[in-house]
Design the sequence.
């Protein structure tokens, strides 16, 4: 066995009964693909037994039970032979066979243009292709200090890549620990809604998740363990906020003022990487009487664990992604829960959402060659660019108020059936929970039925109105109804359109980033900004993923680009680089033209954090993942002023 490939699996020493038991849990299509690696025999995927359809979060490809049982029987034979022969892998599939394997499990031809992106992400050759380059003069690298702002998933990734490149760096983190959003959001029920075997770094093991969609403590622990294993912690200044960053033309450095416990100091950096995330400045509503409320009240991202909600009357204002997870978790414990939901949410059926990863799957992830990599593919591919075509507005479609295209109308019907199947027996509730805007127009929520089950509880009320005012012991709806409250939870979202706020970033010629951006933040490829040399954004303007993928995938693409920019600067002995106005403006015009054609821009979607005050979108990306990955492989020198 190729001991250096971390995805080839540990040697198998289990007896037949243990293997057979493990196989009962696994994804059969991923198992069949693993068998091709394990035996070198492609006939496993060339016979009559095959998946029928690949749908996000359905892991058996809709294969009938008897076919699954037959595959398990064949697999036991093959695995036994592999074990008994000392777990030696045969020659591994070449690119053509890998393409065939992808198309087989996707149940459709995977276009060839996707192969580089998918193979890079799957790392079947055990090579982390997005690793930062260590080439060039080590002394030049050592003389190029970088400040990274934020130690969430993207800041930690930046640290990992800078460490690989031999570039000195300091990560400034306002919290006391790693994880960003996964450090701050500790509300009951907080969990990720992208499958964890994909929502993780591509180059780190992913065989340890206890749930398919892990809860916040496990996610935070994951980032902590990666940080410790990679030796990044010693580079982080915890509990420290960046107050300002000012470009000094004379020395071609950024002067970064930071504050720890009220004491300020200045860091000097040749480049700054902003890894501050987007959804981290809580947005409290402006409601009359909020300050008069006598009981405890707090934002979902600032959950007050000192408040005991057991047996109390809780009013939850807001039911987007956060509120949607909070209500089902606290409802069984409170005396009464009132949920104010101004706009109903579309939900994507996902029966696995709260499921634990069973011991058989864990065994397969650890032992079956490349099983985990194919399982990753099975999450990545159906949640990838296929969904983007469905998000495009068809201007010829006549019913724009309910759907943006015929295909989108089919999705609306599918989602509507999912809701109706659960609450069709309660017409009053059904009317309240059916959204009246196009499906996927806001962020679609993952659902296993827990939301509507919660709303059907005797101790839960759903109020489909706004809030008129708050009194010392109650919340009053716009129709004047009074809802008594001991505790108020504001699950009202974040300042998503205020990138990097409230930091004061001053670039060339005194340009102030917040003023340059105003309500329309833009960056070339969402990463670099005219007037702000050697300044790089991760999860910058226009890069949020609304159609699929995972933000970690996006960060890995962006950080590769940033590493290549740093390489350009250092190996060329340059002072600075910034995007040309032309490149930036051309990109921005394309971004705006494209995003306006997507469902998130539909005027039928009244409120969403994707939109700014004017209803324009500067948060989300309209791009295919395959294109964005291509554009961010390395900087095009013609798009930059490099001196
Ligand atoms: P959100 O999606 O922006 O939802 C905010 C909620 O508050 C909405 O129901 C909104 O109503 C309501 N609201 C806002 N202002 C209000 C007001 N003045 N009066 C009454 N209601 C008001 O925020 P979020 O739930 O925190 O989620 C934000 C994003 O974070 C998500 O879309 C997702 O990207 C991410 N997130 C992800 C996860 C996950 O992975 N599982 C979990 C949580 C959050 P309207 O809809 O009418 O505006």
Sequence:
């Amino acid at each position: 066995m190729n001991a250096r490939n971390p995805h080839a699996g540990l040697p198998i020493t289990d007896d037949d009964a243990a293997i057979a038991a493990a196989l009962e849990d696994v994804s059969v299509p991923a198992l069949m693909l693993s068998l091709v690696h394990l035996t070198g025999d492609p006939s496993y995927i060339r016979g009559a037994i095959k998946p029928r359809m690949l749908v996000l979060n359905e892991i058996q490809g809709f294969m009938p039970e008897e076919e699954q049982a037959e595959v398990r029987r064949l697999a036991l034979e093959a695995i036994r032979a592999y074990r008994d022969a000392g777990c030696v892998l045969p020659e591994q599939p070449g690119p053509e066979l890998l393409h065939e394997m992808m198309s087989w499990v996707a149940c459709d031809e995977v276009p060839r243009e996707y192969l580089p992106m998918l193979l890079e992400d799957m790392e079947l050759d055990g090579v982390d292709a997005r690793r930062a380059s260590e080439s060039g003069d080590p002394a030049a690298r050592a003389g190029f200090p970088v400040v990274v702002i934020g130690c969430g998933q993207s800041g930690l990734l930046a640290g990992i890549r800078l460490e690989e490149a031999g570039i000195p760096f300091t990560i400034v983190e306002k919290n006391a620990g790693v994880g960003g959003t996964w450090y701050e959001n500790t509300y009951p029920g907080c969990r990720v809604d992208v499958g964890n075997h994909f929502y993780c770094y591509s180059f780190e093991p992913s065989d340890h998740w206890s749930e398919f969609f892990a809860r916040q403590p496990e996610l935070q622990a994951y980032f902590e363990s990666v940080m410790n294993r990679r030796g990044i912690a010693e580079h982080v200044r915890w509990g420290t906020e960046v107050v300002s960053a000012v470009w000094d033309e004379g020395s071609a450095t950024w002067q970064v003022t930071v504050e720890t416990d009220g004491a300020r100091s200045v860091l000097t950096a040749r480049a700054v990487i902003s890894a501050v995330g987007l959804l981290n400045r809580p947005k409290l509503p402006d409601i009359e009487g909020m300050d008069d409320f006598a009981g405890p009240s707090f934002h979902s991202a600032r959950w007050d664990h000192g408040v005991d909600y057991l047996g109390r009357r809780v009013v939850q204002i807001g039911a987007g992604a956060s509120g949607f997870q909070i209500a089902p978790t606290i409802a069984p414990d409170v005396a009464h829960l009132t949920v104010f939901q101004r706009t109903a949410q579309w939900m994507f059926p996902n029966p696995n959402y709260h499921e634990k990863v069973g011991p058989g799957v864990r065994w397969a992830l650890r032992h079956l060659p490349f099983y985990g990599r194919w399982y990753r593919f099975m999450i990545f591919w159906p949640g990838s660019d296929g969904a983007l075509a469905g998000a495009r507005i068809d201007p010829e479609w006549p019913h724009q108020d309910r759907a943006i295209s015929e295909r989108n109308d089919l999705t609306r019907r599918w989602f509507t059936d999912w809701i109706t199947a659960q609450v069709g027996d309660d017409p009053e509730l059904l009317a309240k929970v059916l959204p009246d805007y196009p499906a996927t127009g806001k962020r679609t929520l993952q659902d296993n039925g827990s939301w509507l089950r919660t709303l059907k509880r005797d101790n839960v009320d759903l109020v489909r109105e706004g809030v008129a005012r708050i009194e010392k012991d109650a919340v009053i709806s716009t129709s004047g109804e009074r809802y008594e409250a001991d505790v108020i939870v504001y699950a009202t979202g974040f300042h998503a359109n205020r990138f990097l706020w409230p930091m004061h970033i001053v670039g060339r010629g005194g340009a102030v980033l917040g003023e340059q951006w105003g309500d329309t933040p833009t960056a070339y490829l969402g990463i670099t900004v005219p007037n702000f040399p050697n300044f790089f954004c991760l999860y910058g303007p226009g890069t949020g993923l609304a159609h699929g993928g995972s933000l970690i995938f996006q960060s890995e693409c962006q950080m590769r680009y940033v590493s290549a920019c740093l390489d350009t600067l250092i190996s060329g002995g340059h002072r600075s680089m910034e995007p040309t106005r032309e490149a930036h403006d051309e990109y921005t015009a394309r971004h705006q033209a494209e995003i306006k054609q997507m469902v998130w821009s539909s005027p039928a979607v009244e409120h969403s954090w994707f939109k700014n005050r004017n209803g324009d979108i500067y948060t989300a990306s309209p791009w295919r993942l395959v294109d964005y990955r291509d554009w961010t492989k390395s900087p095009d020198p013609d798009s930059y002023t490099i001196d």
Observations:
- The pocket of NAP is lined by residues 191-193, 279, 285, 300, 317-323, 325, 340-343, 443, 466-467, 491-493, 607, 609 (CB under 6 Å).
- Residues 290-346+395-490 form a domain with the FAD/NAD(P)-binding domain fold (CATH 3.50.50.60).
- The mean pLDDT is 96.
